[in-house]
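Narrative of activities, Objective 1.

The group set out to show that a structural description can be obtained from nothing but a protein's sequence at a throughput compatible with the screening campaign. Below is one input-output pair from the validation batch, recorded exactly as produced.
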Amino acid sequence: MESQIEKLLSGEVATLPTETVEGYAVALDSKRGIRELMRIKDRDFDSDKIFTLVPESKSAISKYAIVPTAAQALIDRFMPGELTIILPKNPNFQHFYYDHYATIGIRIPDHPVFENLLAKSGAVLLTSANPKGGTPKSFTGHLPSTIVDFTDPTAPKILRQGNLKIDLQSF
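Output recorded for this entry:
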């Protein structure tokens, strides 16, 4: 595992465990690594699938995204954990990859590898470690994370149901 962390810290794509499925991760500041991740996942800037951003901490999320009150309640309750939230991108966040999109997916895995890694690397991009159209590899029998879309804060919706069950009516 240490060699994968060293790869990420040197700007390369690393294969890392999460509490849900195995993931490919790359440092947010590695253009070379992000381009390699795009090649591995067969994605371009016009893809409707956007790599998830793992911020360095929960308090850093607002650097990257606009966080509505209801989304903040989910963040406070379920992050780190099996939750990905789709939010409007913060217009002050300028980045060669994310500048192509109006939204941004945010997730903080609840796994010791990420707790230690984020302290060293800062934010990373994350996606499931499977070929395009393939099934993600689960370490624990879990499904991929639950995805909640907050791009319309008045009507959040669950885009993918994972093991984490959320009743949006209570938020």
